[in-house]
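Late entry, evening session. Most of the bench is empty. Finally got around to the prediction I had been postponing all week. Sequence below, unchanged from the version circulated by S.P.
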Amino acid sequence: MSLVRVEGVTKVYQLGEQKVVALDDITLSFNEGVFLAIAGPSGSGKTTLLNIIGCIDNPTRGRVFIDDKEVTGLSPDALADLRARTTGFIFQTFNLFPVLTAAENVEYPLLQLPELDRAERHKRVSHFLSVVGLEKYADHQPNQLSGGQRQRVAIARALAINPRIVLADEPTANLDSHTGKNILGLMKEINRSFGTTFVFSTHDRHVMAMADRLIRIEDGRVAMLGVKADEKWHAVRPGRGNGGVDKRTQ
């Protein structure tokens, strides 16, 4: 069973009198536990696809399934609850609250889960700050942290809800090359240790090199699907139900 499946997804934006096709009839899927890169130039539609997978945006046409349950057409409240419980987000600009400490930023999404009491929230915050190596910086505000440390806080925040999937939109874009590689290494380690699914929107060759699945988007369409085996990319043909990226070969 696929974790995510999109079928015939098209997204059209209306800009004044002009219609812009951001995605054009996309069909693909992937299993839990992948480290997947959605790559393409600026304006190719990769971020739009990421947002639709994350239920932030709705397709103009087509259907989206999470765990084989269709989520297209759900109410905004139902989609918000789904995101809060299943999906962590990491952004290139970190999106941390400047007035909150690192610990408070990590705790923030947990406040949307009423079943978690204060003790459980603090336990999770402490655990995931430790996972990203920032337990000593729990009381620091974002302006007291480096770019790499802020992105680690963002990773801990994304993981705190125990998500099925983490969506990362250009997570290394605002980091220097060395720090970016360290952040990628951390996310890969989390992927291997916890089985957390990571999906990246990126044009960073380092992200693509570390991924085990690759979707290349050009002009809103799938230009290439790739599976990595023996450190080499193997192009596969898109197909209904698997999108060419849900066959595990490693």
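Two things to note before I forget:
The first helix runs from residue 46 to 53.
The CA atoms of residues 70 and 208 lie 29 Å apart.
Will write this up properly tomorrow.
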